[in-house]
Every structure is written in C-alpha cells, then in structure tokens.
Write a structure and sequence with these properties.
The complex is a heterodimer of chains A (334) and B (286). With 334 residues, chain A is an all-alpha fold. Chain A has a domain at 114-294: MetI-like (MetI-like fold, Orthogonal Bundle), CATH 1.10.3720.10. Chain A has 14 helices and no strands. Chain A has helices at residues 2-31, 37-48, 53-66, 73-85, 100-135, 140-152, 157-171, 191-227, 231-238, 243-280, 286-295, 299-322, 324-327, 329-333. In chain A, helix 5 (100-135) packs across helix 8 (191-227). Chain A starts with a helix and ends with a helix. With 286 residues, chain B is mostly helical. Chain B is 75% helix and 0% strand. Chain B is built from 13 helices and no strands. The interface between A and B is large, with 49 and 40 residues.
Chain lengths: 334, 286
C-alpha cells in the first residue's frame, strides 16, 4: 500500500523536525545558563579538601577539556548531536560520575508505564462515556457525569493531585501517597512487587484520569450528537439494527478518528501533566528526576531529561499517528 | 455588545455562573489596592490565627493576613494570565490569518512550525528556562516564554476559519476594490475570528495560570512575589496541613478552583454562542 508508506514517511519527517527543533532549543537554552558544570564540580571537590590555586586552575582546564567546552559553540553543537545518537549526555553532576542517561533509563520505565496506562484508560473511559452521553441525551446519570467532568476538567494537574494527597493522606489515609512501591518489598518479578507497584500507581493514575477525561468526554459528546442526526443513523434505527450495534459501529466508529488526531495533539500536554503528578506523589519517574536535577544544579541531567522528553513525546505522537490507517480506511486506500 | 451579554446571561446558565465566579475573583483581586499591609511584609499580625471576624481567611505562619495577602496573589496571577493571553493572541491571530488567507507555501511552512510547537512537551522546557534564568525569571519573562509556547492550537483554529473566509464573496469584492492583503486580513477577516479569540483567550488563561501555579508551588518562580503558586509554596514550606493551619491551603485552593471553573464556563458558553445552531436551541427557537 503505497499511500500508507507515503503517509508514514510524511509523519516521520515531522517526527525528525520536532526532535531537531526541540533538542536544539534545549541545547541553546542550556548553553545560556550561568551555571557552569565545570565550576559545579570544582566547588564539590574543593569542598572536601583545600587545594592550591594552581591545582584548581589545572583541574578547571582538565574538566573543561573533558566536557568538550574548550571548542567553539557550533562544534559543541555538532558534538552534542553526534553524542545524542549514542545516548551520551555526559556525566550527571549530582551523582557524578554516573552517566545522565543511566539515571534517565532508571526513571523512564516508571513514567512510560504510568503515562501509557493513564492515557489509555482516560481515552477509553472518556470517549465511551462521551459517546453514550451524546447518544442517550436524556440519561440523568450521563448528564451528572457531564457536570462532574465540567467541574474537574479545568483544574490543573497539580491542584487535583495535591487535593488527592490531602484527602487520601490526611483525611482518609487508605492509599499510599508516595513512592513507586512499598519500602519493604524487594524489586523483582514477584507477585508482591507487582501488586505493590499497582497499589502505589492507583492515586497518580486516577488523578491523571480524572483531569484528562473531560476533554475526551466533551469532544466525543459533541461529535456523537452531530452524528446521530445523520440520515444513515435514522435508517439504521428504522431498519431495526440493534441499538448496541448502532452506538458502537455506526456512531462511535465514525467519531473515533478525530479523537485519535486530538490524542496525538494532546500528548505533549499530558506528558507535562504526568511529570507534575509524579512530583506530587514522589513517583520515581522523569518528573521527580527533573526536579531533583534542578535543585541540585545539575546542568547535564536537566538538559538530558528535556531532550529525552522531547524525543519520547514526539515518538509517542508518531506511534499514535501510525494507528490512523487502521481506523480510517481513507488513509489506507488513499 | 451589551445585548449579547444580556442574552447570554438570560439564556445560558453556564455563562451566568462563569461570569459571576470570575467577577467575584476580579473584585477580590482589585481589593488589593485598599490593603492595609504591603504585600511582602511579614509578621504584621499574630501568626496561625484561624478564620475569624477580625481575620476573615485567618493568618498564616509568616504573620500575614491571608485575606489581604490573597488579594495581592490573585491580582498578580490574573495579571499574569491576561498578559500571556494577550501576547499569545497576537501571535496566533497573525499566524492564523496569514496562513489562512495567503495559503500555499506560506500556509504549509507556518503550519509545519505550528505542528512542531504543538508536539513540544512544555513543562520540561519551562523548567529548563527557570534553570537558566533563575532569579531573572520574573512574571514578565515567564509571560513572554509562555506566550511564545501557547499560541499554536489557537493559530490552527483561526486559520481554519480564515480559509473559509478567503473564498467568500466579500473577500473577492475587497480584492477587486484594490484592498491590500493586510487590510483585508485585519479589517475584513479579523472581526469574524474575534469570538474564537475571546473563547480561546479564556482557555489560554486557564492553561498559563495552571503552569504558573505549578512552577510557583515547586518554588521555581520569584518567591517574593505573592501569587497563588507561591502562596501554596509557603504553605507547604511551613507544613501547613501537618501543623493544622488548613485555611492556608484550603482557601487559596478553593478560590483558584473557582477561578478556573469560572473561566472554563465562560469559554464553553462562548464556544456555544459562536455556533448558531446550539445558540438557537438554547433560546428555544429551533
């Protein structure tokens, strides 16, 4: 199917452009930083022992050369790109000399796991309820869902997560409010560990679902309430097609494609929300790592997390875009 | 204009509630001009007093009267939101109208850039900016950065309307009458996109204030400027929930939720007003 390949190729170009622009922006911003990684390390070393000024000077020169900061900026930029392909961002400063990418690889599975589960749950629940609310417009229950969604949707992630910590941490302490798993469980593929992870993910995931659901609910309700007035739906009703079949394969099926496009466009924002939520629930993912890096003055780690975020989000959008041909025959046939 | 507002209040309960909530918050923030205390003074009243007749919203552990302190916080936060909304509206109107009216390669290249901005995860980038600018990241710089990141969704929306306008009869007349493209865009087409500009401005304010609160709570803004974010930061800093000074957290959170809800309802009701079919259904005309 050549049209699909053309479609995928165009999307891939876009993916490359987003990654290029995002990481370049991150590089430029990081280079403007008055915090020099060399001085940070020297500050750390001289903290422990007193050194002669000449020794400090030679230390400074060694580190400047080691970090490749003694060459012109454009060459640094080229080097940055060369090393980006091998995943080399240089050593983290708070955990010197652990490479920044190692810390990220430890944190990334948590974020990806939480984000994937939350996005899929949010999208399915929101669209299902929204579709039903658009089809059964007189249902009291679905109207109530709409009112609740209107109330929660505009509140930013931070406030909702914060309120859930207050409710489940102070007022009714039944769920764990921090960490990725319980302290007394040994990590590994044991049922205890998996259960502990799930138990700890309930609050962060449900805060993400609560905030995110409204967008899909309203979008789907509006789309469906337009579709139900179409002639083919009336014909299907007159022809005695099962109601469940009308809702699922006549109405919702047609509304799902624009909602998938919307998902691709919303992923960047959802990602930002996830790393904010992680910080509130002390979840061991990218968000917590990013805040720790900022507070520790860790230039390489902050730059590395920003670049990985851009790449991860762009790749996720690319994957969602590639799902289009499976739902929309027009893209498939061309 | 006034008849529109009157109709909206009469037929659209969402608009009425939204306008009331936002109105209360705006009046509240305007009270800051009558505050007996300067915004940054601490230990001017007894610390940790619960809400009472003398201190309506209680006092915090830093010895500030929460009522007056919150008036400043809301004034700064709202001002920030409006600043971002206005600046990003300027960008999105310009990009949207240019791309929609000129079309061709201008449209394609602009939408290419637009899609790149849509795909960027904003929070890590904001953190990166804070990391670089540190204390230089004041309200105004942050507003500039947020405006630079917050225009693409709305530019696309405006563009889609502008494309429709390009093929309308009056545009053709204007072209034949010798109007310049700039004049057509900003005198003939701009009025048609104004309703979208207003409703997206509300959504944009929710978005930017949300990020301001988040950055503030994490301590990533200038902590000496009272905003909703920094108020919550200081509350967390003094472990307000553990110490038992719940009013330090619950009252600002309740007020900020009222603000978001109000802005959201305004945006939703304006969106509905733009669509004449749903407007008619509201007024019972259909």
């Amino acid at each position: 199917m050549p049209s699909f390949i053309l479609f995928a190729f165009k999307r891939f170009l876009q993916l490359a452009a987003v990654i290029f622009a995002g990481t370049s922006l991150a590089f430029v911003v990081a280079k403007l930083s008055p915090i020099s990684p060399v001085e940070t390390i020297i500050g750390r070393v001289t903290n422990r022992a007193s050194m002669s000024p000449t020794a400090i000077q030679s230390l400074r020169e060694t580190y400047t050369e080691l970090f490749g900061l003694d060459i012109p900026l454009w060459q640094q930029y080229l080097n940055f790109w060369g090393r980006l392909f091998t995943g080399d961002f240089g050593p983290s400063l708070v955990a010197y000399p652990t490479p920044a990418i190692d810390l990220i690889l430890l944190a990334l599975p948590w974020t990806v796991g939480l984000l994937t589960v939350a996005v899929i749950l949010t999208w399915i629940i929101g669209n299902l309820l929204g579709g039903l609310a658009g089809y059964y417009q007189n249902s009291r229950l679905l109207k109530a869902v709409g009112v609740v969604a209107i109330g929660i949707q505009p509140i930013p992630y931070y406030i909702v997560a914060f309120l859930m910590v207050i409710i489940f941490g102070y007022l009714w302490p039944v769920l764990p409010i921090s960490g990725g798993f319980a302290m007394n469980v040994r990590p590994g593929f044991t049922p205890q560990f998996v259960l502990s992870i799930l138990h700890h993910a309930i609050l962060p995931a449900s805060s993400l679902v609560l905030v995110g659901m409204g967008t899909w609910f309203f979008g789907m309700r509006a789309l469906v309430s337009n579709i139900v007035t179409e002639d083919y739906v009336t014909y299907a009703e007159l022809a005695g097609v099962e109601q469940r079949k009308i809702v699922s394969s006549y109405v919702m099926r047609n509304a799902i494609v624009p909602q998938l496009t919307a998902l691709a466009m919303a992923l960047g924002g959802i990602f930002s929300g996830t790393i904010i939520t992680e910080q509130v629930f002390a979840y061991p993912g990218l968000g917590t790592l990013l805040i720790r890096a900022v507070n520790g003055g860790d230039t390489t780690l902050v730059l590395a997390v920003s670049c990985i975020s851009v790449i991860a989000v762009a790749t996720a959008i690319f994957i969602v875009d590639l799902l289009h041909p499976f739902l929309d025959p027009r893209v498939r046939v061309g | 204009m006034w008849t529109i507002i009157r109709d909206l209040i009469r037929y659209n309960i969402e608009f009425a509630i939204g306008a009331m909530l936002v109105g209360i918050i705006v009046i509240f923030s305007l009270l800051s001009f009558f505050s007996p205390y300067a915004p940054n003074d601490i230990y001017v009243v007894f610390p940790d007093q619960p809400p009472s007749a003398a201190f309506w919203f209680g006092t915090n552990s830093r010895g500030q009267d929460m009522f007056w302190n919150l008036t400043f916080a809301f004034r700064n936060t709202l001002f920030f939101g409006i600043m971002v909304a206005v600046l990003s509206r300027i960008i999105s109107i310009t990009v949207g109208l240019l791309a929609g009216y000129l079309g061709g390669w201008v449209d394609r290249s602009m939408m290419f850039v637009n899609d790149i901005f849509v795909a960027l995860p904003i929070f890590p980038i904001l953190i990166l900016f804070y990391f670089v600018l540190r204390s230089d990241l004041n309200m105004f710089t942050l507003a500039l950065i947020m405006a630079g990141l917050g225009w693409p969704f709305d530019a696309r929306l405006i563009r889609s309307v502008a494309i429709g306008l390009r093929h309308r009869e009056f545009t053709r007349h204007a072209v034949f009458a010798g109007m310049s493209p700039a004049k057509i865009m900003f005198e003939e087409h701009l009025p048609y996109v104004m309703p979208i500009v207003f409703s997206t401005a509300m959504a944009n304010m929710i978005w930017s204030i949300g990020f301001e609160v988040t950055l503030g709570v994490l301590g990533f803004t200038n902590l000496n400027v009272p905003t909703i974010g920094t108020t919550l930061y200081w509350a967390n800093n003094h472990s307000a929930m553990v110490v038992g000074t719940w009013w330090w957290i619950i009252i600002p959170v309740a007020l900020i939720i009222a603000t978001f809800l109000g802005l959201f309802l305004l945006a939703v009701s304006m969106n509905e007003y733009i669509d004449p079919r749903s407007r008619l259904r509201r007024m019972g005309g259909e």
